[in-house]
Amino acid sequence: MIIKRNYLIDFLRLIFCLVIINYHFFSHFLLDISDPPYFFSRGYMGDEFFFIIAGFYLQKAAVTDNSLSPYLWNINQLWERLKNIAIPYYITWMICFLGVRFTNSHMGTANRPVFLDLADSIYELFFLEMFGFIRGFYSNQVGWFFSALLISTFLIGPIAKCFKKTFSFYIAPVIALFSYGMLYLNYNFLWNPYSIIGSTFFMKGTIRALAAVCVGCIIHGISSSRFFEEKCNHLSNTMKRGIVIGDIFLWILVVAYMVYPFSSRSGDGVYYDYAVIMLMTIALIPVLGNLYANESNDVLSKVAKVVGKYSFYAYFGQAIFYSFDKLITTMDISKVEKAVIHNTSIFIISIMLALLTKTINKMFYHINSAS
Fold this sequence. Notes:
By secondary structure, the protein is mainly α. It contains 14 helices and no strands.
């Protein structure tokens, strides 16, 4: 089967990026007011999309790359991920560090000596929060995602490389079931992530990422199987259109679940709905199996590629915004105005951070070329 590049996945990155951003708006600004609107209140499950996609491409690399031993290959995978996030991550850390100190000073909150705050930031600097260490000074509320992703890569990578397709069909389902079983027994961990292991995001990050990354590996096994490819080759255009229409309906259900408000606050915490994960998994198979594939020179595909690229930086943009968010919270303006400021600020910051990262990468490239 000839596979054309399709950028629908980049478009979906933007959709789930918006879902997560506005969930954080709900959780940061709205939970402390009486009778808040509950739009985006289940948006926390948008992170599953990004973990699943990461697992899919990890498994794809494990199956197709035969150049190195599993352990050296996995070190390369970790290094590649670190290279992609290191510059924006540490720029974000510096801005957040200064932002929190500025916000504390502006609001009359006592600032400790700067050296103590720097010492407390060691956990963010080395991605240690997911290993059970306490959160650091500026409490980057989105940095846990990258820490959890790195740990999942470290644990799953060499196994996926050793067993290749066998991992997708036998080992990954067992790890996913075990992990989701752990989450099911502690379904309220999202509401109070510190209740399992004090002062850490262990359950919110590591176990959750491990489960979803394995789901991505399973999807790769299904979409790259001979059975799937043979069936796709024999599908008529009418059948493909029918599958695409059905798949779009599934995506509408998934996004609507995360966006649509529920009527009352849950007293037991936020529910981790496994049915939505199953729907997302099924909906991703046609997407990642290239049933939507478009020509690479299509205008919409190029636009989707651009917005998908900037969506990656929105994780960092949120962290920067939250270092100043108390200044917005205390403003005497409506919820709608706060939502507009929240979304607009994060995307402006994200684009600026992307451009700054690109500039720094070019500088490093010229320095290395010169040497």
